[in-house]
Design a protein that fits this description.
Elements (H helix, E strand, L loop, with lengths): L19 E7 L6 H19 L7 E7 L2
Parallel strand pairs: 1-2
């Protein structure tokens, strides 16, 4: 993955702030295109947090369904 310049954010949460968990609940009739774009946003946010030296600010993303 290419390196991007990361701007400095002044009001960051304190060190040790837990990562955030994002869960996409889907069903058997939905296609991956329905949620992949939104998942990419959280992935990029985690990438930038890690690249700026704060991996604790990232997101853990899951997709779940009943079946």
């Amino acid at each position: 993955m290419p390196k991007y310049p990361v701007p400095v954010v002044r009001d960051l949460p304190p060190e040790g702030t837990p990562r955030r968990r994002v869960v996409f609940v889907t069903n058997q009739n939905s296609g991956t295109i329905d949620y992949m774009g939104t998942m990419q946003v959280f992935h990029e946010a985690s990438f930038f947090a890690k690249d700026s030296g704060r991996p604790d600010l990232g997101y853990d993303v899951e997709v779940v369904s009943r079946g």
